[in-house]
Design a protein that fits this description.
- This protein has 174 residues and is mostly helical.
- It has a single domain (3-173), classed as Thiamin diphosphate (ThDP)-binding fold, Pyr/PP domains (Rossmann fold, 3-Layer(aba) Sandwich).
- It is built from 6 helices and 3 strands.
- β2, α6 and β3 form a beta-alpha-beta unit.
- α1 (3-23) crosses α4 (72-82).
- The mean pLDDT is 92.
């Protein structure tokens, strides 16, 4: 990473922190959000992911599935930075009536590919999308970010074995 990238990631973390503490009194899982800052920055800002904020349901998009739902503030912040919604809307995080809750909801937030929670088992979901994309001949990729706690769950390992069996070279697990 360049010095500019490192400065941008510091700013990214600063936005996460200020959103959490300025508007909710600290109602956020900062460690979870901070732990994925470099990954999200790299995927979204360094042109790894194919996406269109103006067309969140674009059929050829890559999909990022944040299985560790407690990192919600990080995914919300990066989606605001790249233009899925106004940055000022983050100020409603965890407020009554806000669409930005403690865990992402794909029905409310453009750019969120899967509703998740703390141990959401979304690798199985991502494996299914990757398999469907491969069967349809799409060049799209699926990225799934796991939390450490869920890696001990049986469904995660079943998804890993299924991905290997189907040779899903379009699936990246982080």
């Amino acid at each position: 990473m360049t010095n500019e990238d490192e400065l941008n990631i510091k700013e990214f973390r600063k936005k996460i922190f200020l959103t959490a503490y300025s508007y909710t009194g600290g109602l956020a899982y900062l460690a979870s959000a901070f732990s994925v800052a470099e990954v999200l920055y790299t995927l979204y800002i360094k042109d790894i992911l194919k996406y269109k904020p103006s067309d969140p349901l674009w059929g050829d998009r890559d999909r990022l599935i944040m299985s560790k739902g407690h990192a919600s503030l990080a995914i919300y912040t990066i989606l605001a930075i790249v233009g899925y919604f106004a940055k000022d809307e983050l100020f409603t995080f965890c407020q009554p009536g806000s669409r930005f809750g403690g865990e992402p909801n794909m029905l409310l937030i453009p750019g969120v590919e899967a509703s998740t929670n703390s141990l959401s088992h979304r690798l199985s979901f991502g494996t299914g999308i990757a398999l469907a994309n491969k069967m349809d001949g799409k060049g799209s990729r699926v990225y799934v970010i796991l939390g450490d706690g869920e890696c001990q769950e049986g469904t995660v390992w079943e998804a890993v074995m299924s991905a290997a069996k189907h040779q899903l070279d379009n699936l990246t697990v982080i």
